[in-house]
From TrEMBL:
Residues 35-469 form the FAD-dependent oxidoreductase 2 FAD-binding domain. The keyword Transmembrane does not apply. SUPFAM superfamilies: FAD/NAD(P)-binding domain (SSF51905), Succinate dehydrogenase/fumarate reductase flavoprotein C-terminal domain (SSF46977), Succinate dehydrogenase/fumarate reductase flavoprotein, catalytic domain (SSF56425). Residues 531-664 form the Fumarate reductase/succinate dehydrogenase flavoprotein-like C-terminal domain. The lineage of its organism: Bacteria, Pseudomonadati, Bacteroidota, Flavobacteriia, Flavobacteriales. This is Fumarate reductase/succinate dehydrogenase flavoprotein subunit. InterPro entries: FAD-dep_OxRdtase_2_FAD-bd, FAD/NAD-bd_sf, Fum_R/Succ_DH_flav-like_C_sf, Fum_Rdtase/Succ_DH_flav-like_C, SdhA/FrdA/AprA, Succ_DH/Fum_Rdt_flav_su, Succ_DH/fumarate_Rdtase_cat_sf. Residues 501-564 form a coiled coil.
């Protein structure tokens, strides 16, 4: 099947407007005759469910959490981008579009990214109307801060809990529709298969996680807003429940999986402390606005700090290496995430890491506290030379901007980041790969749509900070509600989709047989044993740096581990009850297949682009070396085992941006 991205004709700035003008619509009376299933209730799924229901469709929404409020979007901290140019610093729709394509290392689709930039401003207005408490400046106007990879301030935020506040906005919109009866909410339900009838997605098979009951649910279209697959690495910043299952089941039913190897390594996370950990904690990238990243210049100081005979605060300025400011003077500490992550790894690999394991660098707020303190003292007419007063005033400013993040760090690390620099290290965060979709956000399966992090479409090889929330809400509020109508316009006379068809029966039987296999396996090892082993293979051989030899061995090791899993995993309890180990086993089974495809995709991409760094392809300065022959989206078709997956290429054409070497110096 040839890939058809359905990108509209005409000038870039007019594509979305012209597309909306010509797209098929469903009139309000006919929307009442149409059912839509939305899987996932984070920012993408929640906003889509609320908007579709508001338009008049009958929506069934599913989440595996006990409430939509617990979707992983809640964990997003730093902010959401929008090209409103409130700061008057030169921002524009084109600038946001340009920064996003460049930040993604020229591996994303121009038309989709421009549309994202175009609708971004609407998101802020929508959320303000919902009561989202964005930070405001002294005059009461919405405030902005800067994020990595850009030279303007376009990020709207609510302290360090922006995701939570935006999700509450979407959740309140959902609740209104639940109250009206337009959304039927299924909490604690996990989608385990997509049902295809006459070539179209017409429903799902779901498991009630509380009772274990297997259920059939039908609709005229299915929307997946199920997030990313960072937990294939076991340790990531994702919630422990985050998984690839819904997307992977869709892949096995014919939806192509695009760019699976594109993973974002976030530069500012709390370092790993030991094998006891089950997840990692993100420290928002917004901290890089005011925090300066450094390591000691001399290894004798590194050794003393590790032995705790020297405090980082005792080190003089001339003995510190602010390596991002040194290497990238134009952007400094605000280089994109992939660049900052690789730079931290390089310093630690050279022996300058500051914690016991040697895998940490400092994020220091001393200079910002001093700067803000002097400014506050000046404004209040106080003594700017009073060091104690300046420090106190400066800490109050930092607390107002990032207080919950500092509190979280203190509770986890037991060190006061107001007094001692934070220790950070890169960790797996977001996944730019996902289900392939066209301009309408439809997958290669008609009637099956993917939105937010679940699709591949907007971020290329590296997502700029504060763009995840932007894409999730753009897709859910402003894109999918238009484009899904183009498909559903043919279904106004279809009538309700029955669930007693052979297709539903076959899909349900398939789900039941997989569950029975897991329950009756009689193995000896718990699920986490396999998940941790997979995570170590992925991190060591498919992580921040990759090479041909390691990727080939990773493919073999993952295949062997998957075979061992199906022979020797042990699931206690029964299938007809609440059984978290069974739910986890199903998710890890899918990770064990995805992991192999991930490594296969990384192996065929013989270039370094964004977060995908191949040792064989780097400049003399150690920067990523992109190659023109890989200017495509790799979309994989399921053919059984991951080793048999077939590669389809969507060539990427750049008509509005010059593709050149990416430099932040």
């Amino acid at each position: 099947m040839a890939l058809d991205s359905k990108i509209p004709q005409g000038p870039l700035a007019d594509k979305w407007t012209n597309h909306k003008n010509k797209i098929n619509l469903v009139n309000p009376a006919n929307k009442r005759l149409i059912d839509v299933i939305v899987v996932g209730t984070g920012l993408a799924g929640g906003s889509a469910a609320a908007t579709l229901a508001e338009l008049g469709y009958n929506v069934k929404a599913f989440c595996f959490q006990d409430s939509p409020r617990r979707a992983h979007s809640i964990a997003a901290q730093g902010g959401i981008n929008a090209a409103k140019n409130y700061q008057g610093d030169g921002d524009s729709t084109y600038r946001l579009f340009y920064d996003t394509v460049k930040g993604g290392d020229y591996r994303s689709r121009e038309a989709n990214v421009y549309r994202l930039a175009e609708v971004s401003a609407n998101i802020i207005d929508q959320c303000v109307a919902q009561g989202v408490p964005f930070a405001r400046d002294y005059g009461g106007l919405l405030d902005n801060r800067s994020f990595g990879g850009v030279l303007v301030s376009r990020t709207f935020y609510a302290k360090g809990q922006t995701g939570q506040q935006l999700l509450l906005g979407a959740y309140s919109a959902m609740n209104r529709q639940i109250g009206r009866g337009k959304i039927k909410m299924y909490n604690r339900h996990e989608m385990l298969d997509v049902v295809i009838v006459d070539g179209k997605a017409r429903g799902i098979i779901a498991r009630n996680l509380v009772t274990g009951e297997i259920e059939r649910h039908s609709a005229h279209a299915v929307v997946l807003g199920t997030g990313g697959y960072g937990n294939v690495f076991f340790l990531s910043t994702n919630a422990m429940g985050s998984n690839v299952t819904a997307a992977w089941k869709a892949h096995k039913r014919g939806a192509y999986f695009a760019n699976p190897c594109y993973t974002q390594i976030h530069p500012t996370c709390i370092p790993v402390s030991g094998d006891h950990q089950s997840k990692l904690t993100l420290m928002s990238e917004s901290l890089r606005n005011d925090g300066r990243i450094w390591v000691p210049k001399h290894k004798k100081d590194v050794a003393a700090i590790r032995e705790k005979s020297l405090k980082p605060t005792d080190l003089k300025e001339e003995d510190r290496d602010y390596y991002l400011e040194r290497r990238y003077p134009a952007f400094g500490n605000l280089v994109p995430r992939d660049v900052a992550s690789r730079a931290a790894k390089e310093r630690c690999d050279e022996g300058y890491g500051v914690n016991v394991t040697g895998e940490a660098v400092y994020l220091d707020f001393t200079a910002a506290i001093q700067r803000y303190g002097k400014e506050e003292a000046h404004v209040k007419g106080l003594n700017e030379d009073d060091a104690a007063l300046v420090k106190k005033l400066g800490q109050e400013v930092i607390k107002n901007k990032y207080g919950n993040l500092f509190q979280m760090y203190f509770k986890i690390v037991d060190e006061n980041p107001y007094e001692t620099p934070m220790m950070i290290y890169p960790a797996v965060h977001y996944t730019m790969g996902g289900i392939w979709v066209d301009y309408n956000l439809q997958t290669t399966v008609p009637g099956l749509f993917a939105i937010g992090e679940a699709n591949f479409s907007d971020h290329g090889a590296n997502r700029l900070g504060a763009s995840a929330l932007m894409q999730g809400l753009a897709d859910g509020y402003f894109v999918l509600p238009y484009t899904i109508g183009d498909f559903l316009a043919d279904d106004i006379r279809t009538g309700a989709i029955p669930t007693d068809s052979k297709e539903f029966e076959e899909a349900e039987n398939k789900v039941r047989s997989e569950i029975e296999h897991l329950m009756n396996n009689g193995g000896t090892k718990p699920v986490d044993y396999f998940h941790k082993k997979l995570g170590k293979i992925m991190w060591n051989k498919c992580g921040m740096a990759r090479n041909e030899k390691d990727l080939k061995s990773a493919i073999e090791e993952i295949a062997q581990l998957r075979a061992e899993f199906w022979k020797d995993v042990r699931i206690p309890g029964s299938a007809d009850e609440y059984n978290e180990e069974l739910a986890k086993a199903g998710r890890v089974a899918d990770f064990l297949e995805l992991g192999e495809l991930f490594a296969k995709d990384a192996l065929q991409r013989e270039e370094s682009a964004g977060g995908h760094f191949r040792d064989e392809y780097q400049t003399p300065e150690g920067e990523a070396m992109r190659r023109k022959e890989f200017q495509y989206v790799s979309a994989w078709e399921y053919k059984g085992a991951p080793k048999d997956a077939v590669l389809h290429k969507e060539e990427l054409k750049y008509e509005n941006i010059e593709v050149k070497e990416r430099s932040y110096k």
